[in-house]
Amino acid sequence: MDALFLQVLNGLDKGGAYALIALGLTLVFGTLGVVNFAHGALFMAGAFCAVTLEKVLTISTKVKDESITFFDAYKEVPILEAKFPVVGAFIVDFSVPFAILLAIPVMLFLGLLMERGLIRHFYKRPHADQILVTFGLAIIFQEIIRHYFGANPIPQSAPSMVSGSANIGALFGLGENVVYPWWRLIYLTFAAIVIASVFAFLQFTTFGMVVRAGMQDREMVGLLGIDIQRRFTIVFGMAAVVAGLAGVMYTPILPPDYHMGMDFLVLSFVVVVVGGMGSLGGAVLAGFLLGILQSFASMNEIKSIIPGIDQIIIYLVAVIVLLVRPRGLLGRKGVMEE
Amino acid sequence: MSKKPQTSNWSRRDVLKASAASAAITGAPLFFSRNAYGAEFLNNPGDGGTVTLGFNVPQSGAYADEGADELRAYKLAVKHLNGEGDGGMMNTLQPSALTGNGILGKKVEYVTGDTQTKSDAARASAKRMIEKDGVVMVTGGSSSGVAIAVQGLCQDAGIIFMAGLTHSNDTTGKDKKANGFRHFFNAYMSGAALGPVLEKEYGKERRAYHLTADYTWGWTQEESITASTEAIGWTTAEKVKTPVGAGDFSQYITPVLNSGADTLILNHYGKDMINSLTQAIQFGLKDKQVEGKDFQIIVPLYSRLMAQGAGENVKGIFGSTNWHWSLSDAGSQAFVKSFGQEYGFPPSQAAHTCYVQTLLYADACERAGTFEPCQVGAALEGHKFDGMGNGPTEYRAEDHQCFKDVLVVKGKDNPSSQFDLLEVVEVTPRAQVEYAVDHPMFAGGDLGSCNNGA
């Protein structure tokens, strides 16, 4: 029971990341009709906002390292901490949460730049062209990151007050071994809040209403004199912000490297397809569902029956779902079917 | 009834085709070599003033930073061989036939390739070096899968392969080749060195849980470490294979919490080790107690670059390494000084083994008086040397594996410098890590006979 509970939490956590990326992907597809293979790179760009902020906050002066005698070596002492020991240390400690403030404008700008500068030229082109150009863009993004940050993962710390584990077993009347890292619980809550905010924004604001109407019938909304294209551009920026925030918050869980966007992209596309192309609810549902299934498939009891199932479960489920429900779990008729 | 005169079925076109085919078949073995006519071995540099070496390292992919350090070491070795710089370990190698005037009087040049840490890319890059660039030797690695693949290619082509960082038993075990040579230690040696230290530190009653990278290196390391821990009385709770590059290991770590195990052995390397160790600590394993015993984590194969990546998390964690820059012997100091002056930081164990392999190859050529692969191989076989940072070392003739002391290291609790991440706990003598050629963990392979590509 304890093990099952922990695997559900693992699945929800993983599913949270999948859902956040897939939500942006499907939002862009539903509004602009673009299959954006660079969306994983936006997740990575968000993560590197956190890395960049941490690097800026820990800009150091070089002091000769007297402990090295074989050659002239220098060690780095962060200026911020040296000048303001208490406040400086606090800011550095909370660099990941602070990175959210940096990531929002940066990702919004990056999203708008991508859409205006490149992707809008491909609206009327076949999906294959869109995939090629956005995939190329993703490779360019990742090579830029590799050039400046190297290939090794760069660990980011959660604030020290939440770096340990929560004894949630006691809370739910389970065994003492049921512990879960605080930051992962925070990530899960964060994912839930962001998803709820996106839905609320689309559901309860006039802007959201127009966007939803545009997703239903773009031409009709245009004929009503509404500049739907401008709104869709903003939606693209919003999707970039969501992916970026997911990336920022994921850094203490998975040390970011230049390839992390690609790793998540493939899974997120499966999530979008399983959920139904263009369906926001489907993306979220499939994200959590596949996350949980992946976690359960990694249990030793399951792996002893079907070896290697943990590595194929997502694709297996995708095949079954597409056979039974070709439009995905919550897919709409007419999307990508012309 | 008249009979038509019988004519031959061969047309002029057929004859031409047959001639072309015959020429192609006859000339096929020469295809590999640009100096094939009159050459007694593949890529013979002949009377030219230069000789080219092929450095095949991961310049992209998960091990790119490791590969970058290897490349730095190779460039430094070339510099020293050509008589530039302070000479590094050329001054400490004993015995040495190196002159500082290239190899056999020819200036050393090099070409580089990107293995991408993928076997197929590594083979393609090595093939290009052999066929297009005419290299006399290929070296590199940073993944046993890659090293084994390239070693096989070099054997078939007729080129010497000096393995870089590769730790799987199979490289000089079931996949050993006559043209391949490994200076780096292996998983069996890690197990043999770690066992007694773990017994001393953590006692005889432990229950170990393995998380293992699912490829040749992970499998042989798991087998080796299990054998050595069970030999000291430990039991094995579970052995779980994890996909290479899994990223998030949480679903593999949570079962450890309820398994009753009190020790986690991470048979992971590079990025996987950084992630799995970081996540194991996030799940509170380091602070956990099982039946009154402190939970322990062990990383059998350590590198400074990995320790740097994992940061604070490596403190107090045991593992093994082929070499460490803080060693005080003359060879290590000469290399660290030379590398540090060139690049501003100390070399990793990957850099060390690659530098040593280049020098050893050059020395073997000098001693053999030729670049002919089989004679160079014969010069390496059974060769005993010292002054390269590992104490007295021998290239065993039977499997082309170097035998030398192994270092058991621990993540340092109070680092005195930014590079001072690991402390050497014990230098395990060679005798303790040595094994018979027909040891079951290395069985099944055949060195075969040397191929010079002629």
Looking at this protein, list some descriptive labels:
heterodimer, A: 338 residues, mainly alpha, ABC transporter involved in vitamin B12 uptake, BtuC, two-stranded antiparallel sheet, two-stranded antiparallel ribbon, 15 helices, B: 454 residues, alpha/beta, Rossmann fold, 2 domains, seven-stranded mixed sheet, five-stranded parallel sheet, 13 helices, 37% helix, disordered N terminus
Q: How many strands appear in the DSSP assignment of chain B?
A: 17
CATH class of the largest domain in chain B: Alpha Beta
Taking the alpha carbons of the first and last residues of chain B, their distance comes to: 60 Å
Helix content class of chain A: 55-70%
- Largest beta sheet of chain B: what is the strand line-up? 7-6-8-11-12-16-17
Number of strands of chain A: 4
Main-sheet strand order of chain A equals 1-2
Helix percentage of chain B: 25-40%
**Average predicted confidence as pLDDT of chain B:** 88
Main sheet record of chain B? 7 strands, mixed
Distance between the termini of chain A: 48 Å
Q: Report low-confidence residues of chain A grouped into runs of 5 or more.
A: none
Radius of gyration of chain A: 22 Å
Share of residues in strands of chain A: under 5%
Shape of chain B: globular
What is the third-level CATH name, the topology of chain A? ABC transporter involved in vitamin B12 uptake, BtuC
Proportion of residues in extended strands of chain B: 15-25%
Assign the structural class of chain B, choosing from mainly alpha, mainly beta, alpha/beta, alpha+beta, or little secondary structure: alpha/beta
> In the CATH classification, which architecture of the largest domain in chain B applies?
3-Layer(aba) Sandwich
